[in-house]
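Researcher: Let's continue the batch. This sequence belongs to Cadherin domain-containing protein, and it's 353 residues. Same format as the previous ones, please.
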Amino acid sequence: MTYTGPTPIPALAAIALSIRSRAIQDSRCYLMNGGAVESFFISEDTPVGSIIGTLSVNGDPNELSGDISLRIQEKKPPVALAPGTKNLTLLRPLDREERLGPSSVYVNVRCDRRHTADPSFVIPVSVRVLDVNDNAPAWLGAPYRARVSELAPLGARVLAAPASDPDQAGPHAAVRYSVLPGPASEYVGFLSELDSTIVVKRPLDYETLRNFTVRLRAQDGGSPPQYNDTTLSVQVLDADDQNPRFTAEHYTATVPDDAHDGTILETLPGPISAADQDLGINAPVYYSISGEGAELVRLDRDSGALAAAPRLLRLRAPATLVLKATQVDNPDRYALATVTLRRAGGARGAGDG
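Model: Same format as before. Here are the structure tokens for Cadherin domain-containing protein:
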């Protein structure tokens, strides 16, 4: 007699186990390394049309005989999957500096198991761009011109000639400076190969060398390196061997009781003034306050006129400031003087004590 009753529980368990086993065995659309994201790194000079990498996904995407299908979900991405393969190819240039294209790409690849009703799998794919030395340093403000006194001491600053490299920070963007060998190249040089400051390296003489031009090079640390050259033209100034001079070594200014912000202060023995002692050159000067106390007054850069600032109005004890007159054409030529500020009335006696 044939048994037609309910299926025994052990038989049901065996069926469920078989179904589960088949599901576990179907690894299609899973990444082979067990990860959840596929990542690629490529050089920024990778040509368009190159294969970036191959997706490590289980399954065969062959259009005729394969058991999975792959496609990128995003519209107009800079990468594509070659039909019937797992190969990710480059459609547009990538650029670490983002001049010619993006510096990274993130897309989602949809994987479907063919001939099943299983839901789709989404595989995030990351493409990151590695820097190459594809940019030469660029000079800022080149070509350069400078005027230097023939009496400028060795090590005196001529000017700064900076260059920048747009490559990613690192050896490719590290700039080294040099003066190329040539006529008069021994007279100037960079403070160091990593410093853009140009200084005097040899004494100058107006009578033997009034003008000269040297070639400068900015070179990065790539292999092979990229470089850019420019010129520096120097005009040697004749015998500026005298500093400016103030009309007095010490000035005094009395702050009136009714002074307010902006009140012009009268100084004795006369207005603050300085002039170049090289009468043949007679270079203009500009005025500044050196050291502490600069916040008490406003000093007109061109005229030397002194005006009260808010902090001066609260001053009770006398204060002495250091004045500086600097030649406009040569910051190495300057003169110093002092000015003492005191309140009207009793403040004068306190200062004298």
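Researcher: Any comment?
Model: The chain has a mean pLDDT of 88.
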